[in-house]
Amino acid sequence: MTAAAAVTAALVGTAALPATAAEHQSSRMHHAMVHISGVQHAWLGRDDRSNRLLNREWVDITNDSRRAMNLDDWTLSDRDGYTYTFHHVWLEGRATVRVHTGIGRDTRTDLYQDRRTRVWDVNADTAVLRDDRGRLVDAVSWGRRSHRAEDMGRRDEAGWHDGGYRHHDGGYRR
User: Fold this and answer.
1) Is 23 helix (H, G, I), strand (E, B) or coil?
2) What pLDDT does residue 115 have?
3) Which residues of 109-133 are buried (b: 16+ CB within 10 A; e: fewer)?
């Protein structure tokens, strides 16, 4: 098969599915694999407001797909509107990146918001992940002030949420 014939065959195969259906499918699959997989919003001991303690406050974002995802201009925010914007971040397939509150040097596995104060409320808050178009990808809530506090799952004494916390994912399914 010549190169021109291969291009024609690829275009014909693509044209068999209406553009809106193809876009909807790819959009849905694009977001279905990225989610908030963990939250550490509190720690035991005295809060001395050090950078070390601020970096013990984090949110894990996981890509369950096999392919890398571009998170450029995605946002992670809390209920009070504190927002971290991802810049030049590619999340590899089957990988997790941890977004710390404090100051640090970004790596492939750890990102830093470079804040000097806490973001996540110890008692009740919501971590919201949005894509570059502002669409809800995932949200995790905890605590008593939440409108669904009874559904928010478990929190151990250190503020760690595991698989029992409540996701509000905007309709995208994993």
Assistant:
1) helix
2) 96
3) eebbbebeebbbbeebbbbbbbbee
Spatial distance between the Cα atoms of 143 and 100, rounded to a whole number of angstroms: 20
Token couple for 61: 């974002």
> Span 152-158, mean pLDDT?
39
pTM given for the model: 0.69
Compute the C-alpha angle 67/98/152, nearest 5°: 100
Rounded to 5 degrees, φ, ψ at 52 are -60, -45
Pseudo-torsion of CA 103, 105, 111, 115, nearest 10°?
A: 10
* Spacing of C-alpha 45 from chain mean position: 28
Counting runs of H as helices and runs of E as strands, what totals does the chain give? 3, 12
Greatest pairwise CA separation for the chain in angstroms? 70
Look up residue 68 and give its two tokens.
């890398």
Q: Give 42's DSSP letter.
A: -
Band the pLDDT of 77: cuts 50, 70, 90: very high
Coil vs helix vs strand at 96? strand
Q: In the structure, what pLDDT confidence band is assigned to residue 143 with cuts at 50, 70 and 90?
A: confident
